[in-house]
Amino acid sequence: MRGAVIFVVVFLIFVFVTINYKELPPGRVLYGMLGVEDVQEEVQGVPATLLVVAVFNGVVYGFIVWLIFDILGKLAKSNKGSKEGRSEGQ
Length: 90
Prior knowledge:
Layout: H1 2-20, H2 27-34, E1 42-43, E2 46-47, H3 48-89
Antiparallel strand pairs: 1-2
């Protein structure tokens, strides 16, 4: 459950960062790979293309941070379990 919260928080942070810093990779590259032309219409004052790029960045960076969080959590559990096992066996 904490992983989902981490993903959502990082997703929202990177969506807002991308809206303010338009050239943050890899969102623009992913959008370019779709082969879709830029849309100039605005949604709540933000160009639609920029919103799509921001969502791409949010998903990519959210997944990366969630994956790192999950791996570190599993490593911490395995280290904790091995330390407890050694102390009980001695």
